[in-house]
Cupin domain-containing protein
Amino acid sequence: MTNPQAKLVRWQTAELINPVAGAPRRPLSGDTRTLTMNTFEGHGGKATAGVWQATAGSFRSDTTGYIEFCHIVEGSCRVVDPDGTVHALKAGDPFVMPEGYKGHWEVDEFVKKVYFVVVTH
């Protein structure tokens, strides 16, 4: 079944409009600051998309209860798997953190990503 009222959702990533300031919930080192601009919500809040950026620091990731697709649009970082595998990521790199992913992020200076999150429960 299609929704005749549905329209394509587009947004720019250069400058975040009315972002929400924050910090990682599970910091490891540094004084990381984040900005998040949510641009889409659907399926009763179970699907969201937007832009997120972070300053230098290291922090844990835990995607329990959701899957997240990411695409780095600016800067660089490393995402480290629980087994120690290091994924060096830069602008243009897409990746998925599956449900229950418990790695950590290492940001040397700055990173910005576009994300799409789907709640799994």
Observations:
- The mean pLDDT is 96.
- The beta strands are 20-22, 27-29, 34-42, 47-60, 66-80, 86-90, 94-97, 104-119.
- The radius of gyration is 15 Å.
